[in-house]
Design a protein that fits this description.
Rossmann fold; RNR_NrdI; alpha/beta; oxidoreductase activity, acting on NAD(P)H; five-stranded parallel β-sheet; FMN binding; about 35% helix; Flavoprotein-like_sf; about 150 residues
């Protein structure tokens, strides 16, 4: 069975809840139609010891910002910095395949802005976005995007 890592950060529990549902959905898919893919959801926080990533992974990041009302330079990331620091640590970002994003559509142009910034900074694709803790269809779409984007030789 091939493990596929998804690094994530969860501030209010929405991303953690989503990841639990994703892991369960992947297990369910393996029982119904074995594809030998296991999702390993790894929460990154300020209390996690940084390590050099040894295998390819995906990232799931929520958006928490302060300052301004648009997407200009006055906006600063808050609460999600641990994940960005982890990606920068020993160039972990080089093992990143792609980025998933959660956010709140009420924030208009700031919806999933953190993930868009990660995509630009690290040169990786934004693969899928969903609102808050997502719905069942989001879990299914997220999983499908993982399957579609795993390198064939990984």
């Amino acid at each position: 069975m091939k493990k596929v890592r998804v690094l994530y950060i969860s501030i209010e529990g929405n991303s953690r809840n989503f990841m639990k549902r994703l892991v369960a959905y992947a297990k369910e898919q393996n029982h119904q139609n074995p594809n030998n893919i296991e999702i390993e959801a790894v929460e990154i926080s300020d209390s996690v010891d940084f390590a050099k990533e040894q295998q390819l992974f995906f990232v799931n990041v929520p958006t928490y910002l302060e300052g301004g009302t648009g997407d200009g330079p006055e906006i600063h990331e808050i609460f999600t910095n641990a994940l960005g620091d982890y990606l920068d640590y020993q160039d972990n970002y080089k093992k990143m395949i792609g980025i998933f994003a959660s956010g709140n559509r009420n924030f208009n142009v700031q919806f999933v802005l953190t993930a868009k910034r990660y995509a630009a900074k690290y040169g990786k694709p934004l693969l899928y976005s969903y609102e808050l803790s997502g719905i069942k269809q989001d879990v299914e779409n997220f999983y499908a995007k993982i399957i579609d984007n795993i390198p064939k030789d990984a």
